[in-house]
């Protein structure tokens, strides 16, 4: 909650609840009574993880939906994929090159405007000391 002392009124009212167990996490939230959502993460197996995210905005009466997964290829490499209700497809590959050095390649493809371009590509090199 946020309270504006100058106006003596509550300016924000956010509420969230979460639950975690060994193989899944559930999270729900409400922001200012106008935005609602939740997510579910599940570790399906040792190598496969999945998640779903849902949201709804009362102001614009719009919904959000996305689903994603992560698959471990081996101890040092994994692939990720996600898709949402705007037909955006995200793909990623992550490789640990050695202890403390990780390389990530990613892309975000706009499925609705595939021929128009505007897709994104990313490259990250993470160094840990």
From TrEMBL:
Gene Ontology annotations for the cellular component aspect, listed alphabetically: mitochondrial outer membrane; pore complex
GO molecular function: porin activity; voltage-gated monoatomic anion channel activity
InterPro entries with a match to the protein in the record: Porin_dom_sf, Porin_Euk, Porin_Euk/Tom40
Major location (coarse): mitochondrion
Pfam family, one: Porin_3
Keyword presence, Cytoplasm: no
Keywords: Ion transport, Membrane, Mitochondrion, Mitochondrion outer membrane, Porin, Transmembrane, Transmembrane beta strand, Transport
Location(s) in or outside the cell: Mitochondrion outer membrane
Keyword hit for Mitochondrion: yes
Domain of life: Eukaryota
Family: Belongs to the eukaryotic mitochondrial porin family.
Name of the protein: Voltage-dependent anion-selective channel protein 2-like
Species assigned in the record: Hirondellea gigas
Lineage: Eukaryota, Metazoa, Ecdysozoa, Arthropoda, Crustacea
């Amino acid at each position: 909650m946020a309270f504006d002392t100058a106006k003596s009124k509550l300016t924000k009212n956010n509420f969230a609840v979460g639950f975690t167990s060994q193989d899944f996490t559930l999270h729900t939230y409400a922001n200012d009574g106008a935005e609602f959502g939740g997510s579910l993460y599940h570790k399906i197996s040792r190598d496969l993880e999945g998640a779903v995210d849902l949201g709804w905005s009362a102001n614009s009466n719009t919904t959000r939906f996305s689903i994603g997964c992560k698959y471990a290829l081996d101890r040092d490499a994994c692939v990720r994929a996600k898709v949402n209700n705007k037909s955006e497809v995200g793909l990623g590959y992550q490789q640990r090159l050695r202890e403390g050095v990780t390389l990530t390649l990613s892309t975000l493809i706009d499925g609705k405007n595939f021929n128009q371009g505007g897709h994104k590509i990313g490259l990250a090199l993470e160094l840990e000391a």
